[in-house]
Amino acid sequence: MEAIALPHKYNLTDEEEKKEILRQYRGLLKVLKPKIKPGDKELLRAAFEMAVNAHKTMRRKSGEPYILHPIAVAVICVEEIGLGVRSTLCALLHDTVEDTDITLEDIQREFGPEIAKIVDGLTKISTVMDANTTQQAENFKKILLTLTDDPRVILIKLADRLHNMRTLDSMKREKQLKISSETVYVYAPLAHRMGLYAIKSELEDLSMKYLEPEAYRSIAQKLSDTKRERTRYINDFIRPIKEKLEKSNVDFEIFGRPKSIHSIWSKIKKKGVSFEEVYDLFAIRIIVNSPPEKEKEDCWKVYSVITNEYNPSPERLRDWLSNPKSNGYEALHTTVMGPQGKWVEVQVRTKRMNEIAEKGIAAHWKYKEDTTDESRFDKWFQQIREALSNQDSNSLDFLQDFKTSFLAEEIYVYTPKGDIRMLPIGATALDFAFSVHTAVGSRCIGAKVNHKLVPISYKLRSGDQIEIITSAKQKPNQEWLNFVVTSKAKQKIKDTLKEEKRQVADEGKYILQRKLEHMGAAMNQSNLEELANFYKLHSSLDLLYDISVKKIDLKELKEFTVSGDKLVPPKPIAKPVVEEKIEIETHTRPHHQPHNKKDAELIIFGESSDRIQYTLANCCKPIPGDDVFGFISTGEGLKIHRTNCPNAARLLANYGHRVVKTKWAKNKEISFLTGLKIVGLDDVGVIHKITNLISGEMKFNISAMTIEAKEGLFNGNVKIFVHDRDELDELCKRLLALPGIERVDRYDTE
Fold it and tell me: How far is the first Cα of the chain from the last one, in angstroms, to the nearest whole number?
């Protein structure tokens, strides 16, 4: 390899750091070598030099030179996503426009419009999660516009996010929570949708490491402890299949891989089982080397060998050979009963399918002749473009709709003529109607699914065939928004409702205009907004509508004065609180003030030991010792949530600027209500043992207790008052030690 030196303008004094930068850049060139064409090396050198010079005085939070980050992102792009030289140039330059003096014009002059456009897209994304909420969602729309123009933008951004997550240890705790929440809320689903399964799993695992550290460490430890045992089991499972496939002259590779920590944790929560009861801790993957024309045939041949050896679970067969996912994923998945009565998931795919599964959309450019998959991606992009073209939609609604419409897993359903359509999981007959045509959706009164009459709210399943029934008299109503999930259906329903509202509001406009003219004020947007603000309404349309339906009678108008033709509201005016500007000090209360029993224990915020009035969130019921964050909510002041609260990811990802650093103060005077679910054998005296331990030995107050016994098992729910997490953990430990008790889980009391 040719000698490489740092550009002479680079002013680092540390020789070791210079060597490390060059070593990593050489590593990048090495992984990129098969893709480098004549003239590329000069371009790469120019991008490297531009990035080194731009970031020469910058350091990461860990203290290392900043330039190591863009190099690492470029390596991920090449090695783990499969991108090429053009993307590498963009990865090296991705932070220059945002963080340094370099402009887009500089990049365009040096590298041309294509590279400049991608870097511009990356610059827009980087601001997406740091601005205020509406700006954040607005920028998210910009990302998606760029994505549909050039998917490389999002692929490079995913590489950037992956490297940031891998190096998150050096960040402050609140930053770790915010970044991890964004990652699990938007970036991991996006990686999944782009077909990058390995990156999606790693992003989820790394997010969990910071959001649920205890659960993460516990599962990681258990996986480590059971590794040898699992390896032995995988080898026993594989042996007979391997022998039979070799006799069948199939060219294949077979191996086992552990499931990700996050997917194991999801299963534990979803199924309500313990780690030991999660049957598919690993999956067996068989990769077949087949020519394109024999791919399906060979995969089914392998499936036949597996199911001859082990009994399959009929409900667990997933055939993505006949109907690939819209991100191009193709494979056969089956779950079979292996030795020792354990269920094992087996995935069968070809080498081409495997590359697409690992490299996602990037691999599609390699297999462009396979136009069916290409068009699936194109269809997906086209749907996003349609959703984006509606500039009227509320940005935060759009972000939520995008998640449910475009990042969810899909089902495939059929039209009466047998054409296939992809819809997100949870889609209803009405979603299907809108996917056919807006007019069909708007007039839909029911549907026939597999020839049986169903309501429009009926949830569809893969394989359903749907015929829509319409009526000219039907029109959308507000209730429809409660059960549609696709972005298109939601937007069209909202548009229709808004149009109807506008027609009603016209009467209100006429009433208001007469009143304003009588006062000598103008009927302009400024005055309308002033009135909407006064009546605490979201928009002037809401104002005119409420006037029209007599919800507002405008008697307060006489309190206004007119200056020129402008309305001046009465003083003092009760304006709604702007959450972003709440100062923590405004909540401070004197230390000697007696505690209200409904108040939680005092909490200390930030470094300054401010003690602040707050409430505990009902969605997760935190107690002292839980990992928590403070959240300034609309009209309700400060609320404390657990970091593993069901709403945490959404709050931290969408409203990061309202999050307040929080830690518990020591105080044993106040008790907190929490709940335990206890499952065990319905044995004589078991209830007495439980109550004796809780209230007799450990002196906890029981608030409520329900026990349900059925067929030899009992399920108990106990609500108790505890001082902190340590007490609760000790109680759980001692309950589990009682004979006949199988499980003890905390739950959030109502």
Answer: 66
| pLDDT of amino acid 205 | 93
- Which of 49, 64, 79, 99 is catalytic? The answer is 99
pLDDT of residue 604: 54
Task: Please provide residue 412's backbone torsions phi and psi, each rounded to the nearest 5 degrees.
Answer: -120, 135
Helix (H) or strand (E) holding 673: strand 672-681
Q: How far apart are the C-alpha atoms of 133 and 129, rounded to whole Å?
A: 8
pLDDT digits (tens, 9 = 90+) for 563-592: 777 777 776 544 443 333 323 332 333 333
Please write down the HEC assignment for all residues of 439-485.
HHHHCEEEEEECCEEECCCCECCCCCEEEEEECCCCCCCHHHHHCCC
d(CA 671, CA 383): 52
Distance CA 103, CA 707 (A): 68
Tell me which long-range contacts 214-223 makes (C-beta under 8 A, separation of at least 24): 215/265, 215/644, 216/261, 216/265, 218/275, 219/261, 219/264, 219/265, 219/275, 220/261, 222/275, 223/258, 223/261, 223/264, 223/281
Closest CA to 89 of 49, 56, 54: 49
User: Contact 303/296 with Cβ under 8 angstroms?
Assistant: no
Helices and strands of the chain, counted as H and E runs: 28, 24
In 3D space, the residue among 258, 256, 225 whose CA is nearest the CA of residue 239 turns out to be 256
Query: Based on the number of CB atoms within 10 Å of its own CB, is 506 exposed (0-12), middle (13-18) or buried (19 or more)?
Result: exposed
Which residues on neighbouring strands pair with residue 444, listed in sequence order? 470
Structure letter (DSSP) for residue 212: S
Q: Is the pLDDT of residue 650 over 90?
A: no
In the predicted structure, residue 64 carries a pLDDT above the cut 80: yes
Residue 99 bears catalytic tag: yes
Peptide bond into 624 cis (omega under 30): no
Structure confidence by residue, pLDDT tens digits, 1-31: 344 555 544 444 577 888 888 898 898 889 8
Give the span between the Cα atoms of 397 and 418, in whole angstroms.
33
- HSE of 586, CA atoms in CB hemisphere, 13 A: 8
Judged by average pLDDT, the poorest of 362-371, 464-473, 479-488 is: 362-371
Q: Which residue has the tokens 């108990």?
A: 716
Q: What is the pLDDT of residue 94?
A: 85
- If 0-12 CB within 10 Å is exposed, 13-18 middle and 19+ buried, where does residue 54 land? buried
d(CA 183, CA 163): 12
How far apart, in whole angstroms, are the C-alpha atoms of residue 60 and residue 63? 5
Task: Give the model's confidence band at 241: pLDDT under 50 very low, under 70 low, under 90 confident, else very high.
Answer: very high
CA dist list (Å): 317 to 305, 423, 434: 15, 20, 30
Residue type, 452: K
**H-type alpha helices, 33-112:** 40-54, 68-79, 85-93, 96-99, 104-111
| Residues forming beta bridges with residue 701, ordered by sequence position | 721
677-689 pLDDT per residue, tens: 888 887 777 788 8
Residue 98 annotated to the active site: yes
Q: Single out the catalytic residue among 17, 20, 64, 98.
A: 98
Q: Which helix (H) or strand (E) holds 407?
A: none
Cα(84)–Cα(689) distance, integer angstroms? 66
Contacts of 239 (CB under 8 A, 6+ apart): none
Residues 6+ apart with CB under 8 A from 144: 384, 388, 402
Residue 543 confidence (pLDDT) above 60: yes
